[in-house]
Design a protein that fits this description.
This protein is mostly helical. The chain has one domain (about 40-150, about 200-345): NCX, central ion-binding region (A middle domain of Talin 1), CATH 1.20.1420.30. It has twelve helices and four strands. The protein has helices at about 1-35, 35-60, 65-90, 100-120, 125-145, 155-160, 165-195, 200-225, 230-250, 260-285, 290-310, 315-345; strands spanning about 95, 125, 255-260, 285-290. Helix 1 (about 1-35) packs antiparallel against helix 7, helix 1 (about 1-35) packs across helix 8 (about 200-225) and helix 2 (about 35-60) runs parallel beside helix 9 (about 230-250).
């Protein structure tokens, strides 16, 4: 038990330090290469922070633990959108790049919808995972093909330093993030198993939060340091890559991934709804306000409370579901519509 706690502390320290190095070096790398920070966030940072999910997914596939695999991805995307974006926006309102709204956000929604459609028959086949990998390459090609170059001054290029050094530091930061996340996941999973929690719940919560810790720390640090394109871009990019690469590549190591009904009817529906909700939140002033961040963060707390009630099979579940479906959901939709109406009114001639 003592050794597990020690590894937990080491993992947390590695995550924080690695994220600090990654944010600084990735930002400078974008400048030195003349690439926009949004593209760096959607690719380099997103790939790096998604590496723990991919590692856990492949390991779960090899060990025939499909609930851990899918629960990890769906739970990580929910954590990214609700917890990380919400918490980051509560700390400081986040600017949203117009290209992200026009291209990457629709891709994120489409990827989530595709995963739901493929899951309807309660299994993700080998060829469906191949389809997800093909979608990954198409997304990356379109992202690189149509992204513009950043306009920079000579002084900005000089201050950025060597791209080789920045690249090596970014790799070092990623390694520290991945190692820290793994130590945290393994120690937290031991605690959860001792408490008798099911694999699906562990995947949706402990493993999902653990493998999302790189995104959490990276996004919050990026937001605090004013690198808001990195903060939002890395989250959207990570959500896309989690579906296309983590499930797609991990699915190549297992003969069909069974999908539980509860994941299809509840968790994927929640994920799709939250992904769609991002559209008016992102579009309203091209910024995620503290109010919108509070809505997202509150949604995450409610989701965790639902998982708790479900795990203990509480009699309160029906009452909780009615409150959420007939009270809170209409309220959130109303807030989103008001934000959207205010933005449209502001942009009207």
């Amino acid at each position: 038990m003592v050794l597990t706690i020690v590894w937990f502390i080491f993992g947390l320290a590695s995550l924080i330090w690695g994220a600090e190095i990654l944010v600084r070096s990735a930002s400078k790398l974008a400048v030195s290469l003349g690439v926009s920070k949004l593209v760096i966030g959607l690719t380099v940072v997103a790939f790096g922070t998604s590496a723990p999910e991919l590692a856990v997914g492949i390991e779960a596939g090899i060990n025939n633990q499909p609930d851990i695999l899918l629960g990890n991805v769906v739970g990580s995307n929910l954590t990214n959108t609700l917890l990380i974006l919400g918490l980051s926006a509560l700390i400081i309102p986040l600017n949203v790049h117009k290209n992200l709204i026009r291209f990457d956000l629709p891709v994120m929604i489409a990827a989530t919808l595709l995963l739901m459609i493929l899951s309807f028959n309660n299994i993700l086949t080998f060829w469906e995972c191949i389809l997800l990998v093909v979608c990954l390459f198409l997304y990356l090609y379109a992202l690189i093909r149509f992204s513009g170059k950043a306009t920079l001054t000579e002084q900005e290029l000089l201050d950025a330093g060597s791209p080789w050094l920045n690249g090596l530091l970014a790799i070092l930061g990623l390694i520290m993030l991945i190692a820290g996340a793994r130590w945290l996941v393994e120690s937290a999973t031991i605690f959860a198993e001792m408490a008798g929690v099911s694999e699906l719940v562990i995947g949706l919560t402990i493993v999902a939060i653990g493998t999302s810790l790189p995104e959490i720390v990276t996004s919050i640090l990026a937001a605090v340091r004013g690198e808001k394109d990195l903060a939002v871009g890395s989250i959207v990019g990570s959500n896309i890559l989690n579906i296309f690469s983590v499930i797609g590549i991990s699915g190549l190591f297992i003969a069909g991934i069974p999908v539980q009904d509860s994941l299809i009817c509840i968790d994927l529906v929640v994920l799709l709804g939250i992904s769609v909700l991002c559209a008016p939140f992102f579009f309203s002033g091209n910024i995620i306000s503290r109010l919108e961040g509070g809505v997202l963060f509150s949604g995450y707390l409610l989701y965790l409370f639902y998982l708790y009630l479900d795990s203990i099979q509480s009699d309160m579940m029906v009452m909780f579901a009615n409150i959420v479906l007939f009270g809170l959901v209409p309220l959130v939709v109303l807030i989103a519509l008001l934000e959207l109406f205010r933005e449209l009114k502001k942009s009207a001639p």
